[in-house]
Structure formats: C-alpha cells, structure tokens
Amino acid sequence: MRHALALARRGLGNVWPNPAVGCVLVRCGAVVGRGWTQPGGRPHAEAMALAQAGEAARGATAYVTLEPCAHHGKTPPCAEALVRAGVARVVTALTDPDPRVAGRGHAILRPAGIEVAEGICEAEAREVQRGFLSRIQQGRPTLTLKLAASFDGRIATGSGESQWITGAPARRHVQALRLCHDAVMVGGETARADRPGLNLRGLGPVRQPVRIVVSTRPLPDLPAEGTGHGPLWQVAGRPEDFMVELGARGLTRVLCEGGGVLAASLLRAGLVDQLIGYSAGLVLGGDGRAGIGALGLARLADAPRFRLVETRRIGPDVMHRWLRD
C-alpha cells in the first residue's frame, strides 16, 4: 500500500478535479502492474495498472489508495474493471466519500467473490487525499499558506526589498511545492507590485498551476495562459465564498503565497489548513514588512493554532510545516 501511496503522490497538482490515486497489482509475491491517475484525471490508476498487467491480473491482489469508483462517467467504473480482470482480492486505504461512490465500489466487488480489505494505511492516505476530501466534505479545496521570512518574521525591508531573503535551495523547494498544488493564489496588491509569474520553472513539460488573484480592481498585465503559465482566474468577495467557488470549479489544493492582508483574511476565516514556512538566518527588525497582516486578536486563546509535523534544513534555511490543530 505504501508503494501505491507513493504512486498516488505523483498525481498531486496534476489531476484535479479527480483524486490522485495509486494502484499496485501483486501476484505470487511479484508486482505485475502499477498505475496512478494520469494528468487531467484520466485514465484512472486501476485502469493503468490493469493495462500493464494484462492476463497477469487474474488472481492478483490490487492495492488501491482510494475505493474504486462505481459510477459511469467519462470512463466505466473501475470496480467493474477489476471484476472483469479476475482480480482475487482488493485492499483499499480509504472509502471514497463522493456520494456517487461512498461504499458502492466495495459493494460491486464483494458479490463478485472478490475479497475486500479496507482501511490499510488510512492515516497516510488521508494526508495524500486531503485536498480531495476537503472539496467533497467541506465544499472547498484545502489551503496551504506559504511564507518565506527572516528570523524575526519579516518578508521585506521597510523600503520593500525582498529578493532574496531565502537561498536558492529554498526557492527550488517552493517550485516543488507549487508542483503538488492545483493553483497558486496571491492578493491583488502583490500581483500589482511584484507581477509574480506563479508558474513552474525548470521542471520540464508539466501542467502549470492555475493562477488566482484575489482582487476587486483590474489586474496588471500578467503573462498569458499557454506561455509557460497556467490559467489566470480573478476572484473577490469574502474568503469563505470564493474558496467555495474554487471548490465548485474543481480545485482540490490551493497554495497561497501572499500578501499579508490576504493571509490574515484567510486565517481569520479559519480557512488555512497548512502552514509552510521558510526561515532565513537574517534579522530585518521592526521596520521590516510583516508577512501577515493584523488579525485583531485580544487574547492568545483566539489565535489560530497549528501543530508542527515536519522540519527540515534546506540549504542555509529551515523549512517548517504545520497542520491546523
């Protein structure tokens, strides 16, 4: 199952609105087929693994990170494909909460004589599927807030100079972070002041993330879609509303990269699920620009709380990752 989860991660940021799923077929102790959800969401992981295995799938065990789909959409149900292939056993990590599935995939397999085991590596699978689960269960994508700052939490000098607070290795890591998100979001002031590319660079031919600018004002002249940049969407209004709108458009994972007013609004609304910080070993002082705007807190008990899940040295900087408590 951990092999299947590693395959599933290859689809993160590349398969929305579908979930990123991995599938491994094992027969007589050997892997005979493996697959993961392909760009744009199809073919599904099970279809890829079955095509690779061919006749070797008969009598095999399928390890799938999410319950096989049970509904007829643009492709036939994967649960029925597993039955037709003669798979003997299916092991899944998560039940699919999508109302079109929600146990129906497992219900197709069992009457066909296929042994089904559920909940294997469930916690790890939930982490991989966090965005998809958020869109189905909460109606919005999961949101990561990224901040690159000095030791004292400043993102620029008082005059606005910010390039570069963190080193090249941390900036490359941010590219990998963008790769596993469907979209990158900034506020209108950041878009007008910095004209950020919000794209993937130096990673070869990849599906570029959607660029989201939160603003009611006209946007600056930003690069057009198809010139090494993804689609450009402008949203406005209450964070709760535009996040639901993004979920309705199919997004599952959004990375917010600024600015401070937008970050504060998202935190106040309780919409930030994950914090990723890059801390550099320099101090800019109180006249430096804060990375997050005013939250209007009177008590510590009202502050948004997150729990540390990862810390890592990246070049001269430190990356730390936190999940909402």
From TrEMBL:
Required cofactor names: Zn(2+)
EC number: 3.5.4.26, 1.1.1.193
GO biological process: riboflavin biosynthetic process
Annotated residues for binding of substrate: 162, 178, 198, 201, 257
Active site annotation, chain numbering: 46
Function per UniProt: Converts 2,5-diamino-6-(ribosylamino)-4(3h)-pyrimidinone 5'-phosphate into 5-amino-6-(ribosylamino)-2,4(1h,3h)-pyrimidinedione 5'-phosphate.
Protein name (record): Riboflavin biosynthesis protein RibD
